[in-house]
């Protein structure tokens, strides 16, 4: 959620829930109750949407605050050092590849996201890292929302001859 938005007031949420509960207690014919329930649910959805957007004077855009200079050019070295210091037995993995950086908004604010792919005993794994400047903000095995599967990769020279071990 953008920094200029506040979460919905709990009063809106609780009043919407009480409306749904009251709808359950309607004593109408099945056909009338069905059409009434649909109208009430549509109304509840509109109220919850309005409550979620309350206090927002504008929504964030995908290009908000993109630095003009781009990421620090030494980010591959920073990522390689981070991976080597974070994981045990990283030498047992092979075929490291790195994606180009993308400017994304996450729970940690606006940061650069890169993805690293590698072979874990003949199984392809992807790892996502958020960084800003020369520090890693967050890292995790890639999920669908990271969109690592749609990125273009290049050989990760800084991890040549090294590997990445599991996180357990």
Walkthrough of the structure:
The chain has 168 residues and is of the alpha+beta class. The protein has two domains: 10-53; 75-159, no CATH class. It has three helices and six strands, in the order αααββββββ. The chain has helices at residues 10-24, 30-53, 75-86; strands spanning 94-99, 102-106, 109-120, 123-132, 135-141, 153-155. Strands 1, 2, 3, 4, 5 and 6 form a six-stranded antiparallel sheet that branches. Strand 3 and strand 4 form a beta hairpin. Helix 1 runs antiparallel to helix 2. The protein is elongated. 17% of the residues are buried. Residues 1-14, 53-61 and 163-168 have low confidence and may be disordered.
Map the helices and strands:
Elements: H1 10-24, H2 30-53, H3 75-86, E1 94-99, E2 102-106, E3 109-120, E4 123-132, E5 135-141, E6 153-155
Antiparallel strand pairs: 1-3, 1-6, 2-3, 3-4, 4-5
Tell me the structural class.
alpha+beta
Quickly count the helices. Answer: 3
Average pLDDT rating: 74
Radius of gyration: 24 Å
| Straight-line N-to-C gap | 31 Å
Principal-axes geometry comes out as elongated
Percent helix range: 25-40%
Order of helices and strands: HHHEEEEEE
Low-confidence stretches: 1-14, 53-61, 163-168
Largest sheet: 6 strands, antiparallel
Number of DSSP strand runs: 6
Our estimate of the beta-strand percent is 25-35%
As for the number of domains, it is: 2
Give a brief description.
The protein has 168 residues and is of the alpha+beta class.
State the main characteristics.
alpha+beta; 2 domains
